[in-house]
Amino acid sequence: MSKLPNTTTSIFSVMSQLAQKHNAINLSQGFPNFPVDERLLQISNRLLTENVHQYTPMAGLPSLLEKIARLTDENYHRKVNTTTELLITAGATQGIYTTINTLINTNDEVIILDPSYDSYEPSVLVAGGKPVRISLNDDYSPDFNRIESAITLKTKLIIINNPHNPTGKIWREEEFQALETILDKYSNILLLSDEVYEYISFKHPHISINSRPKLVNKTIIASSFGKSLHVTGWKIGYLIAPEHLMNEIKKVHQFLVFSISSFSQHVIAEYLDIVDFRKIATMYEQKRALFQDLIKDSRFEILPSEGTYFQIVNYKEISTKSDTEFAKELITKHNVAAIPISVFYKNATDKQMLRFCFAKTDETLIAAAERLNAI
Ligand SMILES: Cc1ncc(COP(=O)(O)O)c(C=O)c1O
User: Fold this and answer.
1) How many angstroms does the Cα of residue 98 sit away from the middle of ligand 1?
2) What is the atom index within ligand 1 of the atom nearest the CA of 96?
3) What is the pLDDT of residues 193-239, one digit of tens each?
4) How many CB atoms lie within 10 A of CB 104?
5) DSSP string over 160-220
6) Which candidate among 8, 204, 293, 294 keeps its CA 20 to 30 Å from the CA of 252?
7) Ligand 1 pocket member 117 (CB < 6 A)
8) For ligand 1, is residue 196 a contact (CB within 6 Å)?
C-alpha cells in the first residue's frame, strides 16, 4: 500500500534529465551554477583536517546556533533562545517535513497556497492529513476571503512561502496584517512560514514572521543556508519555533536524523562571521536585470519578479501548447530548460507560463537568452 500513490518522478528531475539528453542550457532547477565563495572553500579546506567529524548535539552545533540567533537579531530584532527555539535541519525540506509530521494527525487539514513548492502536499499526506489547496490571486497575492472560507474545525496549519517560489512575489505589510486578523480569530491554527529566499528580495523588503510579534508564538519558520549561501547540495537549513512547538518537533527530528552533517555546520558557523547577507540580494538583482534585459525583445512576456532567483514569463505569443508540452519543446527544439508553472498547482491551471532560474553565470544567461530570442 502506497502512502503517496499519485507521486511520480518530480518534474524537476524529468526536465533536468531531458535537458541533459538534449544538451540544453538548464534554467529549470533552482540552484546556482557559479562557484561558491572562495572564503567558504578556504574554511572548508582548513576544517577538513580538524576534529569536526563526529556527531554534533541533536539540535545543532552550539556555535552555529549562536550565529543564527545573532543573524536573526540583526535582521529582524528577534531574540531567539538558542537552546529552546532553534533546530538545524537537513535543508529546509527536512525541517518542513518534520514540522508537518509533528503537528499533523490523521484528517487534520492544512491550507496550502497554490502555486506551491512541491514538498508541502506529500509531507501532509504522509502524516495522514488533508492538503487543502487554495489558489493565489492572478497577481499571486493571497486571497484572504478564499483562505478564510477554507478554514474548518479540522484546520490545523496554514503554509505560506515568502519570497515565493515560483513567482517571486513578496507579501506586503497589509497582507501580513490580514493574515494576523484571521489567525487572531482562529487561535488553534498554526503557521508554517517557508522563508528560504529571505535574503533575496529586491524593491520591496522581505517581511519575516520573525518581525511579527502577533505571529511568532504560533509560527514555525523554515530557512535554508543552501539557498542563502549558494550551497544547495549541502542540504543545511534551520527552523525557528516557540519552545512549546519546538519541543515536539525535536522529538520527531531526533529519530528522523538525530543531527545534521557536522562538517557543514562547522564551516557555516565560521563563515557566518564574514559573509555579508546584504550582498546576496544585490548580486541576484544584477542577474535579474541582466536576464530581463537580454530577453526584453523576445516574444516572451516578462512578469514581475520581486524576490527569489526565479523569473516567470508567459509565452502566449509563441504557442498555444500546454505549458508542460511547451517546456518539453523548448528543450528538444531550442535547447533551453524551464519549469512549467502548472506543476505547482493541484488543479493544473494552465496559464501558459514558465519559470526560469537566473541563479546562473552571466555566460549561461547570455547563451540561454540568445536561444530564447531566436524563437
Ligand atoms: C520554497 C522552497 N522551500 C524549500 C526548498 C528546499 O530547500 P532546501 O534545499 O534547503 O531543502 C526550496 C528549494 O527549492 C524552495 O524553493
Assistant:
1) 14
2) 4
3) 999 999 999 999 999 999 999 999 999 999 999 999 999 999 999 99
4) 23
5) EESSPTTT-----HHHHHHHHHHHHH-TT-EEEEE-TTTT-B-SSPP--GGG-TTTGGGEE
6) 8
7) yes
8) yes
Q: Regarding beta strands 25-26 and 336-337, do their DSSP bridges make them parallel or antiparallel, or are they unpaired?
A: parallel
Output the average pLDDT for the chain: 96
DSSP character for 71?
H
**107 conformational bin, left if phi > 0, alpha if psi -120 to 50, beta if neither:** left
Q: Distance from the CA of 90 to the center of ligand 1, in angstroms?
A: 11
- What are 297-329's pLDDT values in tens digits? 999 999 999 999 999 999 999 999 999 999 999
Question: In this structure, what C-alpha cell is assigned to residue 23?
Answer: 544538451
**Ligand 1 pocket, residue 237 CB under 6 Å:** yes
Write b or e for each residue in 5-42: b if 16 or more Cβ atoms lie within 10 A of its Cβ, otherwise e. Answer: eeeeeebeebbbebbeebebbbbbbbbbeeeeeeebee
CB atoms within 10 A of CB 274: 10
pLDDT score for 349: 75
* Residue 14 confidence (pLDDT) above 90: no
| 224 C-beta closer than 6 A to ligand 1 | yes
93 lines ligand 1 (CB under 6 A): yes
Peptide bond before residue 57 is cis, with ω within 30 degrees of 0: no
CB of 226 closer than 6 A to ligand 1?
yes
What amino acid is encoded at 158 in this protein? I
Ligand 1: atom nearest CA of 232 is: 9
> Bridge-partner residues for 337, per DSSP?
26
The dihedrals phi and psi of 206, each to the nearest 5 degrees, come to -70, 130
248: number of CA atoms within 13 Å, CB side?
A: 11
